[in-house]
Design brief:
Radius of gyration: 18 Å
Oligomer: single chain
Strand order of the largest sheet: 3-2-1-4-5-6-7-8
Largest sheet: 8 strands, mixed
Number of helices: 9
């Protein structure tokens, strides 16, 4: 590999939407596609499945909950490619409806992975995104619904244009703390840990995009959040209304925005349309 090669990376890509995104990028992206998974055996099996279809992804282990794992991946990308062109932050978790795990435990685990670990990936990998790079954070309209179900005070905080990343982190920590103290409803939070985690991802994307605009404007990097829709095999079980292939369409569209594109940037995109919230 030379550092001239282009590279796209998908987290949590051994199954579901992540796998479908990796497959589409293998078909459409002009460069290497790195499929990552927490479980190396499952990741390699996914790579073999795509190879059987005539595609050529590479594999690298990544557990987004492990900072050392993220940094090992960053070092690999630096060494092999001199950076990264496309990052799709897909890895995440969701508890099944009716799961008996106590709500405060669900809240802590869901936010740990979906928000805090995703943020850690961004902290380590955004600095190595090359000019005209594309970053796609997989969010959900469940985040928008969670926002609607927040108190007016919380809604104002999340919508505030001056909200910093540190402020957002504090809000996410407060939600977890409030669930532990069994006061989250009194404090204005909705009872959806997944929704709050994805609200965090959407707002984080807006803040990150603003930061890129301030610090690296000339590089014309575009960063967005998107909702893939209610997809069958992942969080929705068999109740989902669309296939993983349909779910992959918007993330892949954002990942492959042309070099001269200036928008969308810092937006939540569903079905290739910017959502105003």
């Amino acid at each position: 590999m030379s550092s001239c090669s282009r590279v796209a990376l998908v987290t949590g890509a051994n199954k579901g939407i992540g796998f479908a995104i990796a497959r589409d990028l293998c078909r459409q992206f002009s460069g290497d596609v790195v499929l990552t998974a927490r479980d190396a055996a499952r990741g390699r099996a996914a790579v073999q499945q795509l190879q059987a279809e005539g595609l050529s992804p590479r594999f690298h282990q990544l557990d987004i909950d492990d900072l050392q794992s993220i940094r090992a991946l960053r070092d690999f990308l630096r060494k092999e490619y001199g950076g990264l062109n496309v990052l799709v932050n897909n890895a995440g978790i969701a508890f099944e409806t009716g799961d008996p795990t106590p709500f405060d435990v669900q809240a802590e685990m869901t936010l740990k992975t979906n928000f805090f670990a995703t943020r850690n990936v961004c902290i380590e990998l955004l600095p190595i995104i090359k000019p005209h790079g594309r970053v796609v954070n997989i969010s959900s309209v469940q985040g928008s619904k969670a926002l609607e179900n927040c108190s007016e005070d919380l809604q104002e905080k999340f919508r505030c244009e001056a909200l910093t990343e540190e402020d957002l982190v504090d809000l996410m920590k407060k939600f977890v703390e409030d669930t532990k103290n069994e006061v989250h409803e009194r404090e204005g939070w909705p009872s959806s840990a997944y929704g709050v985690s994805k609200l965090g991802v959407t707002v984080l994307s807006r803040i990150q995009a603003r930061s890129l605009e301030e610090k690296r404007k000339a590089d014309r990097i575009l960063l967005n959040a998107c909702c893939p829709g209610w997809v069958k095999p992942d969080t929705a079980g068999d109740r989902g209304s669309r296939t993983v292939e349909e779910g992959a369409e918007t993330p892949v569209y954002l990942a492959l925005l042309p070099p001269d594109a200036t928008e969308p940037h810092g937006q939540l995109v569903c079905d290739k349309v910017v959502q105003h919230w």
